[in-house]
Amino acid sequence: MSAVSPQTDDNVIVMEHVGTRFGDRIVHQDVNLTVKKGEILGLVGGSGSGKTTLMREMIGLERPTEGRITVFGAPLRPGARLRDRYAVLFQSGALFTALTVYDNIALPLRELKLLSEELIHELVCMKLSMVGLEAHTAYLLPAALSGGMVKRVALARALALEPELLFLDEPTSGLDPIASEAFTRLVASLHKELRFTVVLITHDLNTVKDLCHRLAVLADRRVVALGPVDEVVRSNHPFVRRFFQGEYARRIIGPALT
């Protein structure tokens, strides 16, 4: 897939001919990908396909070996000040275990050094409510939380600065089916309300079906399929066929394959 959409106001991220090498190991080769404003783009691929590396390159935490990445209309360079425009929810939640829920969510607000503690308190309470957690949760340490609550607190912290762009790395990993479905509904509801752009790494077919507007599939070191979910799942690429057209996938994706 060599074509790439030009940079427009509708494209939040544009990756052009991105290649990534670690020593002799080639992870990405001629990756071309766009993320459109306001969409939820799912990124799937096999183990070791470089999904997380690609996300880290979009954030600027790693630099590709070759190619060009444009974020919010400007080339992504080391030291680019984008932290107030994007946020990340890591797979484990990455909460600070020695801090209460309140202090975890307040941390990015305090780092601004522009807000009073009174206003920070109001914002923390608002974010807790936004992710469906009761006020008393604020006084708990992460060790006292269930897996689903950890994800919600991590999401509240990620949304503390009201980012335009949200990265979710396996957000339902480790959750039971009920908690996973509830978290997916929460993300869908917040996205509808706040209209942020989402890049979502997942292997969960239910999450793909329920959340993603478009899907990018990484295989053979590049993006081998990109488009609406119901189009991508019909791709004849061997990895896509294995991932989406097995018996288990057919039960979940269902109508898209008929």
Characterise the protein shown here:
This protein is 34% helix and 25% strand. It contains 9 helices and 10 strands. Strand 9 and strand 10 form a beta hairpin. The two termini are 26 Å apart. The N terminus is likely disordered.
Secondary structure tally: strands: 10
Report the structural category: alpha/beta
If you average the pLDDT, what whole number results? 87
The helix content, as a percent range, equals 25-40%
Q: How many helices?
A: 9
Q: What's the SSE pattern?
A: EEEHEEEHHHEHEHEEHHH
Q: For the record, give the distance between the C-alpha atoms at the N and C termini, rounded to a whole number.
A: 26 Å
Q: Which residues sit in consecutive blocks of at least 5 with pLDDT less than 50? A: 1-7
Specify Rg, calculated over alpha carbons: 19 Å
The proportion of strand residues reads 25-35%
Sketch the major β-sheet: 6 strands, mixed
| Tertiary shape | globular
| Major sheet strand order | 6-7-8-3-9-10
Lay out the secondary structure.
Layout: E1 11-22, E2 25-36, E3 40-45, H1 51-59, E4 66-71, E5 74-75, E6 86-89, H2 101-111, H3 117-130, H4 147-158, E7 165-169, H5 177-194, E8 197-201, H6 205-211, E9 214-219, E10 222-228, H7 229-232, H8 238-244, H9 247-253
Parallel strand pairs: 3-8, 3-9, 6-7, 7-8
Antiparallel strand pairs: 1-2, 1-4, 4-5, 9-10
Helix pairs in contact: 2-3, 2-4, 3-4, 5-6
